[in-house]
Amino acid sequence: RLGDKNVRQALVYGLDRQGFVTNFFKGHGQVCHVPLSPVSWAYTDTLEEKMNKYEYNPDKAIELLEEAGWELGSDGIREKDGMKLNFVYSTYPDVEWVDQLIPVLIDNWGKIGVSIEVNYMDFNALSDVVYEEQDFDMYNMAWSLSIDPDAYSTFHSSQAKKSGNNAVQFFNDKNDQLLEAGRKEFDQEKRKEIYEEWAININEELPYIFVYQREEWNMVNDRIKGFECTPYEDMAHPN
Question: pTM of this prediction?
Answer without folding.
Answer: 0.91
